[in-house]
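In the lab's daily routine, each protein ends up as an entry in a very long ledger. A line of letters takes care of the sequence, but it says nothing directly about the fold. The three-dimensional part falls to structure tokens, numbers that each stand for a local backbone shape. The outcome of that step, for a single protein, is printed below.
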Amino acid sequence: MESALYLASLYLLSAVILVPLAVRLGLGSVLGFLAAGILIGPVMGLAGQETGDLQHVAEFGVVMMLFLIGLELEPRTLWNMRHKLIGLGGLQIIATTGLIMGMAVVLGLQWKMALAAGLILSLSSTAIVLQTLDEKNLMRSNGGRSAFSVLLTQDIAVVPMLAFLPLLAYGMSPEAVLKSLGIVTEKATDHAANPVVSLVENLPAWGVTALTLAIVAAIVLAGHYLTRPVFRFVHQARLPELSTAFALLIVLGIAFLMTLVGLSPALGTFLAGVVLANSEFRHQLSADIQPFKGLLMGLFFITVGAGIDFQVLASEPLLILGITLVVMLIKAVVLLALTPIFKVTGRDRWLFALSLAQAGEFGFLLVGFSVQQTVLPGPLADVMLLVIGLSMLLTPVLFFAQGLIASRLTEASAPDHEEDEIDQKGRVIIAGIGRFGQVVNRLVRMSGIETVVLDPDMQTIQLMRRFGVKGFYGDPTRTELLTAAGLKEAEVLVVAVDDRDAALRVVRHARLVNPLVHIVARARDRSHVYELYQAGADDIVREMFDSSVRAGRYALENAGLTEYEAAKVSQEYYKRDRAAIRDLAQLWVSGQPIHLNEAYIARAKELDAELEAALLDELDDDHPHREPDRAKVGVDVDGA
């Protein structure tokens, strides 16, 4: 126990050093966690049997992640995604399994083992891909959404895989199988050892399949009919810690039951999450589980890095690295081949293909299950585990390569459509016609003022044309396009593009070309406001600010203030916050994080205190005898 705690402390210490370094280098946090495990384990040789014990605990990070994913997926959402789930995800699994199976047969494996290997290696890493897409803000792209669909299909496919794999049992001892393949080993790793006595080890293959389906059905029914009444009963105690304890009990209880019968605990909790996605306690469950998930996921990746057996790699380095690279190449080629069918084009197709080219954490679970069911022999399982670990280790490098490819495509490739020839000039030019620009354009046009709309997304321009709104396709950051739209004579330029760097380029160029044009720019946060201010924008609108103030006004009206009081407070807040932004812009330093700017922080606190006093004075004027709640307001660092 003490050695396990000591090892866990070393893991976390190395992660504290290496993870921020990996993130700063743009490689993502996952590579940092994997590197921390490799440093403590294979490099320093400090990992022993305790690593296996820690990995059993860390695997609950995957369990909790799948539970949270399930909570976000209502059955209706799954139904709406059915075309991509069945088509894109299904074809990926079938094609990848077939190609890897063929490669394995060529290498001399029995067809049943080859099929099992193909199924296991067809899965990708949900944990790495989703976390990296989220860190790089790529989840909303077409490639990110398509990758999520495939990952979801793979997670769901684990259910039939667990039911199907026992049917591939080779029916002889692992030693006999290895002998038939011409492989001689001194010692085979015993993956079947399990501290929990499995109830399925003595069942025939069909019995294991039937029991798997029965357990899945029991989890679905229990989650639908039993969980909600119990959660309501616990909630009546009004103790948050009891709610958290019950949420953990659900996850750990299902995981234990699944382990007891030899099935995947992550799979059971995923199904339970889907069942509870329509529950009124869904958000509470998510909030209770999230902190534990993040910590255990990091520990899971660390133990994966520590568990990479470099001795096995050193025995056959070229063969194992070759298998790893060929598997990743096969997966990437299959994914690229599917992109034109499902209209994943341009930079998105490379994001989609390279992000999913690795094997996944479910592979560790399925390999262990396959050994237990005599589907795979121990030494072959060792090689597969190493291939899975190495492919996961290479994934951040693939994301880095995808970023380089995306940059090259943006700079060097021709656009998918020829840019429109602009034959119209207007008093108001609107660069970007997304959600923000559409509202601005509609208000100005409905007021009788003609606009010239520019946007780099052809589908958006075509959609606007169907509604009778004329727009021109082209990149508004190009100087000749803005000139053709009449920038030199325009009275107002509205910069509403999504990309913050593109917005800065447009503002700088416009201010240089036409010093008299009034520039209204959309900003994502306070730092972006300051950048646009220095670039020369006149009016800067934080995209969430006005709606946030309005939401705060509604909250005040329903917290005891009259409509008049809430309106006065909101107006005062709006006026003073805008003034504070102009004040703080003088102290903001480009490239320096706000939390490291002491002068900025000190002035922000002063303005915060002045704002609070002003808002309370507004209320005191209406109610001189009122004793308002003078709780301090927090400083808004980078919000709306």
Q: What stands out?
A: Residues 172-198, 627-635 have pLDDT under 50 and may be disordered. Strands lie at 428-431, 451-455, 472-473, 492-495, 518-523, 539-542. The chain has three domains: 2-183+206-408, 417-542, 544-640. Residues 178 and 380 are 9 Å apart (CA to CA).
